[in-house]
Amino acid sequence: MEIANDKSWSALIVDDDAGVRQSLRLCLEAAGGRILGVGAGAAALEALERSAYDLVFLDLWLGAESGLELLPQILRRQPHTAVILITAFATFESAVQAIKAGAVDYIPKPFTPDQVRLAAERVLQARRLEARVGELEERLGELDAESFFDTENPAFRAFLQTAGRAAASDAVVLLRGESGTGKNVMARWIRDRSARHAGAFVGVNCPALSTELMSSTLFGHRKGAFTGAVADAVGKVQEAEGGTLFLDEVGDLSLDAQARLLRFLNDRTYERLGEAAERRADVRLIAATNRPLEEEVRAGRFREDLFYRLNVLSLHLPALRERPEDLLPLAGHYLRFFSSRMGRPGLRLTPAAEDAIASHGWPGNLRELRNAIERAAILSPSQELGPADLGLTHAKGAPEAAVGSLVSLEAIEREHIARVIPQAPTLEAAARILGIDATTLQRKRKRYGLV
Q1: In the chain, how many H helices and how many E strands?
Q2: Are 56 and 81 a contacting pair, CB within 8 Å?
Q3: Which pLDDT band holds residue 283 (cuts at 50, 70, 90)?
Q4: Higher pLDDT, 5 or 18
């Protein structure tokens, strides 16, 4: 019987007795694991340099070599792995010593298959719960507010059907679309419907990384690899082992990081910065971008070969203006969510507010709508939210904000900022295009609900 119905886990067996290694291997493989057995400490450390493991079964004595002395070296190389000690010389003192050294459990020899499976299952379930709690804490406050999959729009329904088929595969997915269309939420939706739904979901916001740290963040580094690398560090690829790695705004990756990512996509191998040892990882990649990568390729800012590797399954999220049937249901959903969150039951939209929502172009897409509703729920003194509470002062049928149209300068500025930001590679670049500093741009984004 498989452990927790999940095959995306691995274990390293370190025991100098070939018979014990074989028994453990057969037991754990029957439970669904990917297993490697080695007979000495040096071989164990070499294996840990090449691949990540969820579990390590470590004999207390490897001939004349002490497993307790090897244990800290294992944890230095892979701090997140769980070490279970096995020994024929079980005493209370040795068990306490093992736990103090960092082991999570202790199995005496001779052991039964059920003992081994139970020990592995306890550890794996605890790790999954820790990862799930961390993920839910990260998503707390946005999960319900970003639920936009109930749709009356035929095009979006067709999109979700295609995305569902993509989720069932293990191929690379490239999510494309304007800023604010919900690409990060879509990435989680795909993960949740994939065979890796129980695995980790590790997100990387590429624009937030400096050029110098991109490769290190993705693939890890050894101590001394560069100035400031005071200790070994695992990368996001290793953190996502057995699960899904999401690269948000992949078009912002440096050329060095692009080269390393291409190699990883080609053969699932990579190297940490500062070391020559080749590592292997079992990770599914989902990438997202709001930039026209074809133009980035022509400009020499994005590798053509990487573009083709990412563009295997390309899904284009529609803009909110292309989903008019969903505008008011989404607004109502956000309003219910924030009414509950702010402790203001009974908040409602006036007919004029609904007209304004239906007629607005929403260049900031779902993010803009969500922010407008949240701001109104916080600041409006009334239970009835009107167009002014939402920052929408034009009535239905009023002209769209464009140069020469009969709208305020403020409306023109807001529309212009909302259109420039998705086209610029960074917010700093957008500020330079607009002729203002980054602080002013951030203030205007907050004012206009474009954050």
Answers
A1: 18, 16
A2: yes
A3: very high
A4: 18
Q: Is the dihedral of CA 302, 306, 312, 317 positive or negative?
A: negative
Q: Which two tokens stand for residue 372?
A: 């407008």
Helix (H, G, I), strand (E, B) or coil at 254: coil
Nearest alpha carbon to residue 288 among 442, 402, 183: 183
Are the C-beta atoms of 9 and 126 separated by less than 8 Å?
no
**Alpha-carbon gap, residue 151 to 157, rounded angstroms:** 7
Q: Report residue 51 as tokens.
A: 């691949």
Burial of 150 (0-12, 13-18, 19+ CB in 10 A): exposed
In whole angstroms, give the CA distance from residue 328 to residue 325: 7
Kindly report whether the peptide bond that precedes residue 110 is cis, defined as omega within 30 degrees of 0: yes
Distance CA 248, CA 207 (A): 8
When pLDDT is averaged across residues 213-222 and rounded to a whole number, the result is 85
DSSP conformation letters of 392-450: --PPTTPPPS-TTSSS-HHHHHHHHHHHHHHHSSSHHHHHHHHTS-HHHHHHHHHHHT-
Report which secondary-structure segment, H or E, holds 175.
Answer: strand 173-176
pLDDT at 288: 96
For residues 317 and 313, give the distance between their C-alpha atoms in angstroms, rounded to a whole number: 13
Most confident of 134-138, 401-405, 414-418: 414-418
Say how far apart CA 381 and CA 347 lie, in whole Å.
10
Full DSSP string of 101-138: HT-SEEEESS--HHHHHHHHHHHHHHHHHHHHHHHHHH
Q: Are 153 and 266 in contact (CB under 8 A)?
A: no
Separation of alpha carbons 152 and 157, rounded Å: 8
The phi and psi torsions of 61 (rounded to 5 degrees) equal -130, 125
Q: Tell me, what's the pLDDT at 107?
A: 86
State the alpha helices, DSSP H only, in 230-301: 236-239, 255-267, 293-298
End-to-end CA distance of the chain: 49
Task: Give pTM, 2 decimals.
Answer: 0.65
Q: In what order do the strands lie in the sheet with 284-289?
A: 201-205, 244-248, 284-289, 173-176, 313-316
How many other C-beta atoms can be found within 10 angstroms of the C-beta atom of residue 10? Answer: 20
Rounded to 10 degrees, the C-alpha dihedral 391/396/397/398 comes to: -20
Q: Over 80: is that where the pLDDT of 88 sits?
A: no
Q: What structural domains does the chain harbor?
A: 3-127 (3.40.50.2300), 144-318 (3.40.50.300), 323-448 (1.10.8.60)
Residues 6+ apart with CB under 8 A from 213: none
